[in-house]
Design goal:
The protein has one domain: TATA-Binding Protein, CATH 3.30.310.70. Helices cover 47% and strands 26% of the residues. The chain is built from 5 helices and 5 strands. It has a 5-stranded antiparallel β-sheet.
């Protein structure tokens, strides 16, 4: 784990890993709101070749609603980013750690935000665990 994310190396091809990540998020109540295909975007905008790399914006609607109702500025940290990156040995997945984001965003110490972040973090850790199997 890095300071900002839960990391999982998967012994799976990129396309299979993408499917498994989306399904694991879904099982924990997260939908994918955004999908940024960095490989394609950099090729189209800069004409450069870049490895398969995607940024998924995952959202758990009840948790997002609770956070935004308490602190509208919490939207600066939503959705929860998940990176899926092709590496030599398979695929690397990085899932943002909500606790680290709350500390960086100055939201730590707010009881409602601590509750929301704790629940989101718990669910995202379960996603990471599911991807290890």
């Amino acid at each position: 784990m890095s300071d900002m994310a839960f990391e999982v190396e998967m012994d799976a091809p990129y396309s299979e890993a993408m499917k498994r990540v989306v399904e694991a998020l879904k099982e924990q109540g997260f939908g994918v709101l955004t999908q940024i295909d960095v490989h394609t975007t950099l090729h189209e905008k800069l004409g450069v070749d870049f490895k398969n790399y995607c940024i998924l914006g995952a959202c758990n609607p009840p948790l997002a609603h609770k956070a935004l109702s308490n602190r509208p500025d919490a939207g600066l940290m939503l959705p929860c980013n998940v990176i899926v990156e092709e590496i030599d040995s398979g695929t690397l997945v990085r899932i943002v750690d909500p606790d680290a984001m709350m500390k960086a965003g100055g939201l730590a110490g707010d009881p409602v935000m601590e509750e929301v972040g704790g629940e989101a973090g718990h669910r995202l850790k379960l996603v990471a665990e599911a991807l290890k199997n």
